[in-house]
Structures are given as C-alpha cells and as structure tokens.
Amino acid sequence: MDDFYKRKDIDKNTVELTITIPKESFEKSYKAMLDQELSNTKIDGFRKGKVPSNLVESELGTSIKVKVFEKLLPMYLTTALQKENLSPIAPPNYKNFPDLTKDEDLIVSTDITIMPEFKLGNLSEIKIKQEDTKATDKEVGDALSNLFENDNLGEKEINDKWATGISGKLKIDTIKSVKDLSEFVKNTIENQKKIVSRRKAEDEALKQAIEICKIEIPEAAIKYEAEEREHSFMHDFGHDQSKIDAFLKSNNVTMEKMRELWLKDAKEALETDVFLKLYAIDKGIKVPDEELKTKIEEIIAKSPQIEDKSLFENEEWKEYIRRVEEKEKAFRAFSKEVLGE
User: Fold this and answer.
1) In angstroms, how far apart are the furthest CA atoms of the chain?
2) pLDDT band for position 244 (50/70/90)?
3) Which parts of the chain are beta strand (E)?
4) Could you give the 3-state DSSP secondary structure of residue 50?
C-alpha cells in the first residue's frame, strides 16, 4: 500500500498529493455497504433483508458509491499525510474527482497547505520606545474632581474630612488627608499607565519580532481561521439572522467589515502563534508533566459547574493545555528578554 499516493512539492506552502484508491478496495467496501443497505431495506412483497440486490442497486447504487468514496478518501489521505509527516493548516483543496461509474482505480489530487519553516531572527534588533508613565498634576486633579462629583459626602469642597470619608469607602485606612488621597490616586494612575504601556510595548515587540523572523502565513490558513471565527459567531447567535442583524446594527458595523476584522485577527493570531512556538523551541521552553498536572488541578478547581470530569482525563485535551501553557511561558520569557522585568 506504500505506492497508493504520489507527492509533489508545489511551493514552500503547498504539497500536492495524488491519491489512488485501488478499484478492488473500492469494490469490496461498496459491496459491504450495499449488503448493509439491503439488510435495512424493506420493499412490499419482500421480507426485510431479503430484497434482491439488483432492485436496491438500481435505485441507490450511485449514492452508495459516493458514500463509500467519502469514507475511503479521508482514510487514504490521512495515511499519506502520516507517511509524509505533513500537518495541514487548512482543509485539503481537492482538484479533481474520479468517475465512480467506471471499473477502474479512483485517482484524486489534492493540494495540502502546510506551514513553511521559519527561523528565529536576531531579536536584539527590536527597538521599543518606552512611554512616560508619570501622572501629571492635571490627571491627579481631574481624578479627585471626578471622585468629588460622584460622591461629595455632603462636603462643599475637597478637604481632609472628605478625603478620610472616601478612604473609608475605598477601605484604605492609611489615607488621612487630601495629600494622602492625592498620592494614592497618583500611584493608581501610574500603575494603570504602566500596565497599558507594557501591553503596547509587548504588542509592538511581537510585531517587530514577526517581521525580523519573516513570518508569512499562507493565505489559505488565514482564510480558514477567519471562517472558523465567522462560524463561531453565527453559532453564538443560533444562526438567527434577525439577531445577527440586530447585533450588527447596534454596533454600527456590516458583515463585510466583520469579515475584514476576522481576517486581520486570524492573521495576527497565527503569526503570533508561529513566533512563540519558534521562540519556545529555540529557548528550550517546555511544560513538564508535574507543571501540567498543577495547571489542570487549577482548572478543575475553577470549574465546579462541569459535572462530566472525564474531559480532564482526555489526553488530547491535556496536550492542548500543555501547548497553551508553553505559549504563555514563551510570551513571558520573550517579554522579559526584550523589555526587562
């Protein structure tokens, strides 16, 4: 069975596989499915399971052949992919289908989209301009004014008594004056600025890293991921067009614009995923079994509403969690390397 397919590399993103299903294998599967159909078919004048095959075949033969083909082709394709160690990143693109009525081998060609190989570039080339995260006097003053407008506690002006009352509501017993409250507000603003600034810097660092590594995702993969987002969106609304239209109207957006956003999001997500995998491999970042076990225990503790606990024993699910954790570790390590603590 080793010669049932042929491989042809079209480009760095595409491999063509030509699959041959031997007519003997197809005929054997066809007869088996036909017999099964006969056993379940009842026609007046015949007992169930005793209907002559020529009666059923003349009516259902073509549809049965299609079912057999649809069953066999994925099996042959999967075997070929395993033998070639190929991991498709988009559904196969079938280019031709055989004539099922002919007594001959069935030959079908398909293009397989794969992820090209990339190398980690020189990340020292990443240059990030750090933003000023100091709180200005105006920002502090505006924040105090907003607090006072929303809750003046009966005071006519911002004073120490009001500040102490606000501190009680905030449950911060170290605030005894307007000066203390101003310092607290200043620190809060600066901490928020640091968080926002860090996120922006990380996004920019990732963008530069992807460019340095020359990561280009095949269009077929981007399109597939975007379509998955659209399917999920439709599913969330129960495929109810009236609800979908209402959502689009309330958000002043069209479906065309949504599709543009899904394509952009899919592209950025795939680029980031590829880079972080590269980074993890290069830096030897892994999630050992003990660490994975701890993470899964955390997930279980946070998911008391899930009654069927068998999910947590599923090996595929565990490996998915491992990959997610490896990506998170890679991101943290990358952020630390490029931006510091």
Assistant:
1) 99
2) very high
3) 5-11, 14-21, 93-94, 106-113
4) coil
Residue 115 near residue 89, CB atoms below 8 Å: yes
| Residue 178: alpha-carbon gap to chain centroid | 49
What percentage of the chain exceeds 70 in pLDDT? 92
CA 119 to chain centre: 22
Query: Could you give the angle at which helices 255-283 and 178-212 cross, rounded to 10 degrees?
Result: 80
Matching residue, tokens 């190398």: 119
Q: Kind and range of the H or E element at 282?
A: helix 255-283
- Write down how long the chain is: 341
Q: Please list the residues that pair with 8 across neighbouring strands.
A: 16
Contacts of 175 (CB under 8 A, 6+ apart): 163, 164, 166, 167, 181, 184
DSSP 190-211: HHHHHHHHHHHHHHHHHHHHHH
SS (H, E, C) 58-121: HHHHHHHHHHHHHHHHHHHHHHHHHHHCCCCCCCCEECCCCCCCCCCCEEEEEEEECCCCCCCC
Angle between helices 241-250 and 255-283 (to 10 degrees): 80
Measure the CA–CA gap between 178 and 160, rounded to whole angstroms.
Answer: 5
DSSP letter at 129 equals P
Summarize pLDDT for 36-60 with one digit per residue, the tens.
Answer: 776 665 555 555 555 555 555 555 6
The full set of domains in the chain, from first to last, is 5-113 (3.30.70.1050), 116-213 (no CATH)
What is the H or E stretch that residue 44 is in?
none
Do 59 and 87 form a contact (C-beta atoms < 8 A)?
Answer: no
